[in-house]
Specification:
alpha+beta; Pnp Oxidase, Chain A; binds flavin mononucleotide
């Protein structure tokens, strides 16, 4: 494959978009600071990473001099809240250049939560906040690296699958689950636009349904153009199908990872593996209940039913493989079909539960019943 060589000295300022597009994906820090006059500032920074462990430090880089940088240097304090997928729109909105005396919390409608050890507030809607004191700042040309010591970390308990930082039955640390954190990552320009359109479509379709949703609303919410929607997806129907396919892939990944984890833990019994995958699937139905409800409501674009049927058949085949059903055995075939249908229906019911505990109870009951039928 031929390569193109770039000399940063010759590229000049274009090195910025090039590096931005190839150093990917990057997590995004939602940096909150408080000005010396008491204005709470909030801005996303994707030049962000862990900088060290002992002391525990994180860093973000300000390209040019911005309010976040000025405040962090003046007060010596900042908070990094984790940027998550559901908050994409607000995150982008806080990346706008508001005047220094305007708080992005108020302008964009993000909820403040008091920090424990520092003055700048956390973002209440974010599942993770790292409260930091300035450790070091480093000027690099017109950029400044801000290195902060993490003096306190606050993490929502519901992102842990068990006792936070405890041990599971195999002695592994119970850490936040990526599927629950739903972190947003900077993926270069094209992928960011695609992700923004999908996130906007998710909200609009969930509220209005496929037929009533308008392309204009989706692009307005995504901060994108109609042209880019057609460029990325081809139209409204394809956008809906992409949302469905992405959702299915996440569900499959959840189930596959649970089965793998069970296997790693020494489980060999096909039914137990099936139940492990099914539990993860049902948990996903609850976590992504907005989408599960949307697809359950029906009324997708023409051809959607065919797509779902194809998916369903693939799912049945995977379950047959997992349960090692002998395809010549009619009763084994029927069992796989029954179990897959029960799981699909249970997924629908879990997604419409009132709250998480009732969704978990229902999932547990269904899995116990399946164990009895198939056991
Ligand atoms: C996803 C995203 C990532 C960003 N990353 C950075 C960054 O790493 N460094 C930076 O200086 N600006 C970054 N920006 C732009 C700033 O957020 C933007 O300039 C903001 O207006 C700065 O606000 P402030 O003046 O209140 O600090 C990013 C914007 C977005 C939307």
């Amino acid at each position: 494959m031929p390569r193109r060589d770039f000399d940063p000295a010759e590229l000049g300022p274009q090195i910025y978009p090039l590096l931005n597009s190839v150093v990917v994906p990057r997590p995004i820090a939602w940096v909150s600071t408080t000005s010396p006059t008491g204005v709470d500032n909030l801005a996303p920074h994707s030049f962000f990473t862990i900088a060290g462990i002992d002391p525990a430090v994180v860093q973000f880089t300000s390209v040019g001099e911005k309010d976040s940088l000025r405040n962090a240097l003046a007060t010596g304090e900042f908070v990094v809240s984790l940027c998550t997928e559901p908050m994409l729109e607000q995150i982008n909105a806080t990346g706008t250049d508001y005047p220094a005396d305007t708080s992005e919390f108020d302008a964009v409608g993000v909820t403040r939560e008091p920090s424990l050890r520092v003055a700048p507030p956390r973002v209440a809607e974010s599942p993770v906040a790292l409260e930091c004191r300035l450790h070091l700042s480093l000027e690099l040309g017109d950029c400044t690296v801000v290195i902060g010591r993490v003096v306190h970390a606050a993490v929502n308990t519901d992102v842990f699958d068990g006792e936070p930082m405890g041990r599971d039955k195999d002695g592994h640390l119970i850490l936040p689950e990526i599927s629950r954190l739903k972190p947003l990552a900077r993926l270069g320009r094209a992928a960011t636009t695609r992700a923004a359109l999908l996130a906007a479509a998710r909200e609009i379709f969930a509220v209005s349904g496929f037929a009533e949703a308008s392309i204009a609303d989706v692009v307005a919410r995504a901060g994108a153009s109609v042209g880019s929607l057609y460029h990325h997806f081809g139209g409204k129907a394809e956008l809906y199908l992409a949302l469905f396919e992405d959702y299915q892939e996440r569900q499959e990944a959840r189930a596959a990872s649970a089965v793998k984890q069970a296997r790693t833990a020494g489980e060999r019994e096909p039914l137990a593996l099936f139940l492990a995958g099914s539990r993860a699937y049902l948990e996903g139905c609850w976590v992504e209940r907005d989408l599960a409800r949307l697809f359950l409501a029906g009324g997708g674009p023409p051809g959607f039913e065919l797509v779902t049927r194809r998916r369903y058949r693939a799912w049945t085949r995977r379950n047959a493989a997992l349960l090692s059903a002998d395809t010549d055995d009619v009763s084994a075939d029927a069992l796989v079909l029954v179990l897959t249908t029960v799981m699909s229906e249970a997924g629908h019911e879990v997604a419409v539960c009132e709250d998480e505990p009732s969704s978990q109870r229902l999932a547990t009951d269904v899995l116990a019943l399946i164990a009895r039928i198939a056991g």
